[in-house]
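User: I'm curious whether this sequence folds into something compact or stays loose and floppy. Could you predict its structure so I can see for myself?
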Amino acid sequence: MKLVRLILVSSTLVFAMGTVSAADAPAIAALTGDALAAAVKGNLDNDLVLQKFNLKVKGKDADVTIEGSVDEGEQMALAGNVAENVKGVRYVFNNIVPKN
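Assistant: Here's the prediction. I'll summarize afterward.
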């Protein structure tokens, strides 16, 4: 009897979780375009190393373009990594120019 209850409870939980996930799908949809660019810009501006460069970000669909200048190549690479780690980013066009 306990096994039947456990299976029934487990099945109910799996069904309920699936229902919640399906209902929340539009709220979890990936950002695109300007909204994705804003998310990337926010992450760049929150990075202590990159915030002083005020980098520009444009978005189209799931792709983002970062422009501006930084002091060193490592900062350019960091900006690309920050952008790549934003959920929804498919490709980063890194047009940042290092001064050194």
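Summary: The beta strands are 56-60, 63-70, 91-98. The chain has three helices and three strands.
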